[in-house]
Amino acid sequence: MTSARPISADVLRPTERSVIRIVLVDDHAMLRQGLRSVLERENDLRIVGEASSLAEALAVVDRVGPDIVLMDLKLSASSDYEGLTLCAQLSSAHPELGLLVLTTFLDDHLVVRAVHAGARGYVVKDVDTTELVRAIRAVSRGESAFDSRSASAVVRSLNRQSSAKDRLTDRELEVLRLLANGLSNIKIGERLYISPTTVKFHVSNIMRKLEVSRRAEAVYAASKQGLI
User: Fold this and answer.
1) CA 103 from chain center: how many Å?
2) How do residues 119-135 score in pLDDT, each as one tens digit?
3) Is domain 9-156 given the CATH code 3.40.50.20 in the classification?
4) DSSP 8-state symbol, 124
5) Which of 66, 125, 222, 225 has the CB geometry, 3.0–4.6 Å to 23, for a possible disulfide?
6) What is the dihedral sign for C-alpha 167, 173, 177, 182?
7) In the chain, where the domains are located
8) Collapsing DSSP states into helix, strand and coil, what is residue 52?
């Protein structure tokens, strides 16, 4: 009778194809070290590169060709959101790359901007390890991954966009677009063949519906909500 052959440790180890290769991008070395220590406890996760800045991240990704980039939005003292620029550049240069934001910032508009820049997921830094690993695996499969708070932020933002679009009339949207181009009430009236008084009425309605008190705030709020 032939005895069973022992199972090699290599058989139990994930294949190279199943390993998720990750680049960490954060301007704090200690945080990168902590992430590396935590993530590499998982058999299917491997850190293949690190970067502390936008330029460094672009170079590392080009060199090692990871599956996932786990990145913060703040990459320098001069900007809180340089990661958005990095996200857009990586998404453009490597469309197949999984971009997962890991940050301390939780703002509805910021989450949506990250998604528009190419991020497939967004989690906040105090998320537990299990949820972070789950997000990494989901993004590696081409899925979206958000923790409960960032998912809620996306829903709130989408609801606000839908609500504003439903509330604003076609004429108000026309006025809003001309406002965004810096036109005065008189110039808007000339373009739309209506009186300046009517324009003022429309502008007042726009500000009320967008819940702002100034024309510039109306333009800003409309741009955040994708109305212009």
Assistant:
1) 10
2) 999 998 888 899 999 99
3) no
4) E
5) 66
6) negative
7) 9-156, 168-224
8) coil
